[in-house]
Amino acid sequence: xxxxxxxxxxxxxxxxxxxxxxxxxxxxxxxxxxxxxxxxxxxxxxxxxxxxxxxxxxxxxxxxxxxxxxxxxxxxxxxxxxxxxxxxxxxxxxxxxxxxxxxxxx
Length: 106
Hints:
Blueprint: H1 3-11, E1 16-21, E2 24-29, E3 32-37, E4 42-46, H2 49-58, E5 63-65, H3 69-72, E6 75-79, H4 85-99
Antiparallel strand pairs: 1-2, 2-3, 3-4, 4-6, 5-6
């Protein structure tokens, strides 16, 4: 996958919009960040720690915890070149659900 694919899949989610945080593209719903582009080859998603553990255990070539405190809170790196569209879409949907208001989750 590519950063363009991550952008497309993230913006397909209800209420999602692209903004910028620390000069990096991020994706938000109701101004809450659920994903970002770290660089041309890496995305970052907001997971719950237990979701992160499950994804890292299942697909360690794709998902890695962000080092330090952010990673302990669930922020997870996605190695885009190792991800397929179904996996990336599912991960983005999970991250989106973690921050989206209930009114959008119908």
